[in-house]
Amino acid sequence: MLWTTLLAFAAVAEAMPKWMEKRQGGMTMLRFGCAQVVIDRLDPLVNPGVIPSPHVHQIVGGNGFNATMTTSDVSKTATCTTCAFSKDFSNYWTANLYFKARNGTYKRVKQLGAARQFNDDFSTAIDGGVLVYYVSAQPGKVTAFKPGFRMLVGDPTSRKVDANMKRQNCYRCYTGPNFGGDTSAPCMDANIDTQSLPPQPCKGGIRSNILFPTCWDGKNLDSPDHKAHVAYPTSGPANFLSLGGNCPSTHPVRIPQLMYEVVWDTTPFNDKSQWPADGSQPFYFSYGDNTGYGQHADYVFGWQDDELQKGMDATNCMGAKCKDMKNQAIAPAKQCQVKTAVKEDHDGWLSELPGMEMPMH
């Protein structure tokens, strides 16, 4: 496949990883950081109304996040957002990662910003959070999500490799400081991307990527399992750069390729004398998974008006700015917060992972 570099982005392209320098003509890739809005044991998608929910999440986006989020349009319940696009009041969340020391205690792993190749505040100055991608490059029109739309990808109960998820759920061990080794597209290089958490110390931290389905049934904004209303193309889970083939007849509407990227700062825990005595991988997600196969992510759409559709209809937008879409500065974004509902220690050493005494739903 031929990829062309767009001269309009030459000024920023030299600071980008090689895989993003060349891409399909007409492609739009909104790529922006969202600072943390709260760390809490809530999950309004899987465990609505449950306080506390079974495990801890890191949440970014609008300050309308709460235990229920039953409204059909969450953009009307939020007054601010931690994301670069000021009209994006969506919420994006994943489980937290913890280091388990040799003595059996746990410590939360903090997130870094995005790779420093991207010279913008929402990459380098968000002090953690999540990098979000919305990509429009599939054949035909891409339809933005509708108010009330929500979905889930991944399965927290998974503990074995699923070959079908190799392009949807992966990790990269940064081999040097400052995100060394960030040289190819996510989940596409079997030599450096793994479906399990890396077994070795990573000098620059661990990057995780989670990709959502790209086809929708066009009717249901949600489903009982939060998955059945969306689907992968008929050719299977999409390659991040080619974005797959035709949508199935049951899910004919093309939706944006949504991807989360989190860089976990595992560097304070690279001393193997603190790892388990058998040298095994010491990182656990907040639901008790130290394989990484259970990585999952939740999404509740909350873009205001037709702002996201503007981006999907545009061509050759890349990064955190696109046409007349509204942006904000980093300072107000980082001031946007949600009050913690479950009072727990998020930064100290813990004897057990919060909520592990609860049954997993």
TrEMBL record:
InterPro entries documented for this protein: DUF1996
Chain ranges of the DUF1996 domain: 43-303
A Pfam family the protein falls into: DUF1996
Keywords per UniProt: Signal
Top-rank lineage group of the source organism: Eukaryota
Ranges annotated as spanning the membrane: none
Signal peptide: 1-15
Listed name of the protein: DUF1996 domain-containing protein
Organism: Trematosphaeria pertusa
Organism ancestry: Eukaryota, Fungi, Dikarya, Ascomycota, Pezizomycotina
